[in-house]
Amino acid sequence: MEDKAHRLERHDIETGIADALQKHITRHVVPPPTISQRRLSFEHKRPRWFMEMTAEAIGVFLFVYGGIFPIAAMVLNDASPAISSIFQIGCGFGLGIAFAIITCAPTSGGHFNPAITICFAIWKGFPWKKVPQYIAAQVFGSFLGGLVVVGQYRQQLWALKAKLVAEGVTKFNFNGGPGSILCSFPNPDQTNLGYLFMTEFFIGAYVAFVIWATLDAANPFFSPASAPFIIGLAFSVLEFADITVSANMARDLGTRIVAAIFFGSDAFTYHHHSWIGILGTVPASIFATSVYELLVKDSIVHIAKGHAGHSEGQGGLMKHLSRVASSGIVEEV
């Protein structure tokens, strides 16, 4: 068989590497497979709501599992830096969110957070009737993530429980205990619920604001390809801090249910903190997205770039521009 690869000449380099390679090398690519009518019929019969809920559940599972897996390694190995660290936990959550968006967002929109789902309903026209089913799917995905980690670390977890029982400990949901692998608990000296709420609120608002800026189609600094990693990085930066936060209602509630099943119902009553981890991000996200929508977003830029239209059509846009121009002239005068 004749060799299809030839030496590149100088003028080939000047035309660009892609053109040169296409000219000198013939690539034999496997043709895409055909899709049977049977598969098309099967996919057509799938309920859309079920596909969306499945994608949301899998997405939350991916980022929860990616984050609490290194937490388990750190807690069960006495925080040994050779096994796991806060940095690894942050990377686990951040990359887990990126992978969740990449794999599941094309189907469901990639909310993966009840607070974000509620904000989509408030600001983006997401149907309110879908909000409960999205939240249920997100919590279920977190629940599955917690179950899998407990199953994989069952031997070490039960050994830790036995050790604590031998030391006279009867409750296992505390910071550093088996339950803390799954959800957040404050330290024994962190009794100021106002402080804990404000910490959760600020971090939830921080993440939501970055998410909303990333989703802004008129923002020139983001692209669809970079969005998963930017959002993941925003979340992971906060996980690098050694503070008690959940930053996601589904992530906290789903795994807290697992903690209650295996380590005691005080997972919901310890220091009266659970409501902060479960609900704290909802008002925080609403606050952050309200600030972006009302004080930062420039809708005329969206219209100019073709990402939105005036509700009254082209005529309404022309009237608005005329009023703006007139007011500008008056101000100059």
Automatic annotation (TrEMBL):
GO cellular component terms, semicolon-separated: plasma membrane
Record key words, sorted: Membrane, Transmembrane, Transmembrane helix, Transport
UniProt-listed Pfam families: MIP (PF00230)
Gene Ontology MF: a single term: water channel activity
Domain of life: Eukaryota
Residues that span the membrane, as ranges: 55-76, 82-105, 134-153, 193-215, 221-241
InterPro entries with a match to the protein in the record: Aquaporin-like, MIP, MIP/Aquaporin
Localization annotation: Membrane
Predominant cellular place of this UniProt entry's protein: membrane
Gene3D superfamilies recorded: Glycerol uptake facilitator protein
Protein topology in the membrane: Multi-pass membrane protein
Family: Belongs to the MIP/aquaporin (TC 1.A.8) family.
This protein's name: Aquaporin-like protein
Taxonomic source organism: Cladophialophora chaetospira
Higher taxonomy: Eukaryota, Fungi, Dikarya, Ascomycota, Pezizomycotina
